[in-house]
Amino acid sequence: MTTVVVVGGDAAGATAASTAKRLDPSLDVVMLERGPDTSYSACGIPYWVSGDVRSSEKLVARSPDEHRRRGIDVRTGSTATAIDTSGRSVEINSHEHISYDRLLVATGGRPRRPPIPGIERAFGVQTLDDARRLQSHLARVTPRMAVVAGGGYIGLEMAEAFIKRGIETHLVERSPHVMGTLDAEMAELVEEALRNEGVELHLETEVREVHDDRVITSAGEHPAEVVVLGLGSGPETTLGEAAGLALGAGDAFVTDDRMATGTEAAWAAGDCAEVFHRVAGRRVSIQLGTVANKAGRVAGMNMAGGHARFPGVVGTAVSKICRYEVARTGLSTSECDRYGFDGVAVTIAATTRAGYYPGSGPISVRLIGDRADGRLLGGQIVGVEGAAKRIDVVATALWNRMMVEEVVDLDLSYAPPFSSVWDPVQIAARELLKEL
Amino acid sequence: MTTVVVVGGDAAGATAASTAKRLDPSLDVVMLERGPDTSYSACGIPYWVSGDVRSSEKLVARSPDEHRRRGIDVRTGSTATAIDTSGRSVEINSHEHISYDRLLVATGGRPRRPPIPGIERAFGVQTLDDARRLQSHLARVTPRMAVVAGGGYIGLEMAEAFIKRGIETHLVERSPHVMGTLDAEMAELVEEALRNEGVELHLETEVREVHDDRVITSAGEHPAEVVVLGLGSGPETTLGEAAGLALGAGDAFVTDDRMATGTEAAWAAGDCAEVFHRVAGRRVSIQLGTVANKAGRVAGMNMAGGHARFPGVVGTAVSKICRYEVARTGLSTSECDRYGFDGVAVTIAATTRAGYYPGSGPISVRLIGDRADGRLLGGQIVGVEGAAKRIDVVATALWNRMMVEEVVDLDLSYAPPFSSVWDPVQIAARELLKEL
């Protein structure tokens, strides 16, 4: 019998385990998960904290028992403490050992924690267990003031969740703008929306110390009974690195397009593994559930003896921040600079529906093209509706390496409740074409 | 001085005139329009009739005076009554003549009217003037009962508008289903929504006679103080045909990819002109504002001496029908049969947001692929939100001739308020892949 051991039971791990078992039911698939949960939506945590979602159970797509019913040997409370890649075994909870024929390392990500005094008091919101700890804390101390350290997606979503709970919320961000994945012009729209909702923004400010009842920043002191980390996350690679797996882009595990690590019989997928960025033309480290699911599916197919390829990502992400849908894909202006592209950007303001149709609201579209050859390089959309699924048009165009000129011609849908007759993306493409 | 004469002042005509003048301000651009309006949104008419839009002026994107301020010689109330393509002149209102160096025929579409007694009593809703006549009639007779003859997009939108005005509405459709552009399974969802809203559907029923106070159908008689045509429209080609312009697909004017007609110095664009269908691989006749605008832009660029190409359409259309966004692109199953493709279809039911996120609702996605080579051929989406912009992902995929397999891998956006972690389009693609 062939044994597949999967380390990690969330997006990438659980998808890989399920896929492998489905494709080859003869496989013995063991999934090790250090926490109590499998296949949960970490992206849903802010909505549980805000109260929009009633219980943590709702965030679980597939529980350990459901996986077990599908034939997977799920072991929760099982931390993989060491991997012996030559002897092909995994040590569990420092004492038990399990042999594998094929291994997937899907250890996920870990929230960034700046090395400052008291940072261990700040709550991460990476796992459902993190979220439960935060919820207990909130129930126990019913805070009047909160500090969110860092203005990435999760930080902004948590800030909004706290505001919804009636907690005065301060967001502290080191950079001049929140959301480093957006260009400044678009980030400013988001900042305005956050301020309108009541979030106190402290930009170009650093957190210096975290205490039980206050946070000290480079600009002063804020009383705060709860502090949350919103600095984004990086790959969690401690286990695999100790076992000799090579690190690549952004210190994530090196992988090829089959999600193989280069170490024999070992695959990696999810937040801990690098993937190919089709626009940048290089491998990158990205921590996103969609990517983890897709890469996990490919790893699972290959661990079941298949020959699946993961064709890469284009850098798509979306979030709902207060009144806005905030979406991005491809390269931002600063990424163009970093990767050596001569990016030209335009930003246009349009309406989400035909101007005369009731409920029409603002939407801003920024498109970036390559001065060298006229190719589309990236897009960012901030709007009161229709930004999320509109970014997918840009993502699909990037996937296919479309020219800006071609985007103008795309046969996109139009009816007054959904768009102007030239879709805002195409209005932006027309303007960008003039600049190129 | 070079004179450009444009016959028709709505989407294609006005876009072409504006584009030509903008690119070459030395051109003398004359735009002939038989009605009083230019550049209006015919698609917005149902929303004026329903009361969602307050006045017809709101539907005008650019009035004759606004065009004049941009240097275009707009002549409203000017019907082109003949064209002499060898002498290069256009006869206006049967007595005046104007010479041209370059001509655009943009005579638009005309609503289909079955040849039955009293059909002249039925209102078209093709032009703003048509809509004004209908509105006067409604104001005068305040009907209690309405009949809509035909279940195309415009028919359904008008039926909904009448219901909103409190008019009992009967929709009579000859085929077994409304919306011939959808496959039966998807059309049934729309029918259910219409019935829930109070529209009386009479399928497989023909209108036989139209009287002032009633309509006689193959199934009986309905009292009705207003009858509207909802049978869709075809190309209006009478003028150009008499002048010797060749007719092609669907009896629209033959055009090449520069929107030239083959007759010297004569271009055609909009509802009256054929365009290339990239998925079907042939020229087709399509009556849609988006296509008219895009083809008009290309014609305008070429009439100004440019060398623009119109790369074609993929058959995208969307409408809001009661609670649903109803969208389609590419080939339907019946179009696959007609054009000789071995189409394989799957339909999946999903949710518009993460299942646990408040406000999540149903969305159905149907995808069609080519059994011969695994290529995506078409898609249809009916959902309470997110169908309109989601079809654009399918349209962009079709534009780029993507394989179904690739659609599964697309890097589409995900956050709980907008989608499940696998977008419904990708869930459908995965299912379709199994069938192929």
Structural features, described:
Two copies of one chain form a homodimer. By secondary structure, chain A is α/β, with parallel strands linked by helices. Helix content of chain A is 28%, strand content 26%. Chain A has twelve helices and 24 strands. Chain A has a five-stranded parallel β-sheet. Chain A has a five-stranded antiparallel β-sheet with strand order 20-21-24-23-22, with helices on both faces. A four-stranded parallel β-sheet of chain A has the order 11-10-9-15. In chain A, strand 1 (3-7), helix 1 and strand 2 (28-32) form a beta-alpha-beta unit. In chain A, helix 1 runs parallel beside helix 8. The termini of chain A are far apart. In chain A, 57% of the residues are buried. The interface between A and B is large, with 64 and 64 residues.
Topology (elements, then pairings):
Two copies of one chain form a homodimer.
Chain A: E1 3-7, H1 11-23, E2 28-32, H2 45-50, H3 64-69, E3 73-75, E4 80-84, E5 89-92, E6 96-99, E7 102-105, E8 109-111, H4 128-141, E9 145-149, H5 153-164, E10 168-172, H6 184-197, E11 200-202, E12 207-210, E13 214-217, E14 220-223, E15 226-229, E16 233-235, H7 238-242, E17 266-268, E18 275-277, E19 282-284, H8 289-303, E20 317-321, E21 324-330, H9 333-339, E22 343-351, E23 362-370, E24 376-383, H10 387-399, H11 404-409, H12 424-435
Largest interface here, residues on each chain? A-B, 64 and 64 residues
Largest sheet of chain A: 5 strands, parallel
How much of the polypeptide of chain A forms β-strand, as a percent range?
25-35%
Strand order of the largest sheet of chain A: 3-2-1-7-17
Instruction: Provide mean pLDDT of chain A, rounded.
Output: 96
CA gyration radius of chain A, whole angstroms = 23 Å
The class by helix and strand makeup of chain A works out as: alpha/beta
Oligomer: homodimer
Overall geometry of chain A: globular
Q: Helix segment count of chain A?
A: 12
* Portion of residues within helices of chain A: 25-40%
Q: How many extended strands of chain A? A: 24
Question: Which segments of chain A are poorly predicted (pLDDT under 50) over 5 or more consecutive residues?
Answer: none
User: Span between N and C termini of chain A?
Assistant: 59 Å
